[in-house]
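Review form for a predicted model. The reviewer records the input and the model, then writes brief findings.
Reviewer: anonymous (R2)
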Amino acid sequence: MLLKKLLAPYPAVGHKGSRYLLPVLAGFFVGFFLWLFEPFQMGELPQDQRFFQSMAYGLVTFVAVLFNVGFLPDLFPVIFRSKTWTVLSEILFEVYNVLCITVGNAFMHAYLMHEPFRFEVLQAFFLPTFSIGFFPVVFYVLYRQIVLEKENIAISNDIQPLVVHHLEAEKVHTSHIIETPQTITLSSEDGKEEFTLPVDDVLFLESAANYVELVYIVLNADKPKKMLFRNTMKNIETMLSAYPQVFLRCHRSFIVNIEQIKQVKGNSQGVNLMLGEGIDYVPVSRTNIPRLKELLGEGELA
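Model under review:
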């Protein structure tokens, strides 16, 4: 049970705006916490020195968290992939943050006391800093995972009936009407590469740095095919604009074919669209859920 909870999905480090806000909040919290509660015999210092040292340790926290949260995800994107990030990943990452702050505080202490850095100082800082940081972090991560999972499962359960009705309506529609498959042409930004395929064969498109990856169905193939070409999601949206009832920019990095959605599932990372066995799920940002429900509802009423 515990292992299952630790391996449950968890939101990876967020977008850059929140990544840069967190270090500021963490730095201010640590600085004012030390100033108000005066741990580590800080109460013995004169008032002006107590405030200065508290803010110095807050600065250490700010720098450590800024580097770990603000820059590491960009330096090692494979490690911080949302689809592989778990509760255990988050706990280990937060423990790493606490350890970095501990080491930084030990160096700051040596600097403020005009003393050479000694291992004994690190030991003295390790236990109180780690004990103060570790248990609240574990509790917060586990609590947040439960709350987010509950919220997103409720949202997905609200959408799932629309998916079922949409699929049923589509079956009735295709059983009575034989249509010539509509095609769409996608191209690279410079226009040198072009790819034409039936609209119904498109599963989804995903942003990949300066490229876009197209995932599509091939008749009689065991699994979907992928094609990578240089372009932006904004340009791709324009190419797909002739089919506003079919394609949805459901996430800043994804465009999905509404007709290919088979199921909706929620976990602590968010609401995800399942397009079939062996196919990567497609996330939906909360701001795009109303439009998703609207498109699925239109299919139901068609």
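Findings: The longest helix spans residues 119-176.
Further findings: The CA atoms of residues 127 and 148 lie 31 Å apart.
Recommendation: see findings above.
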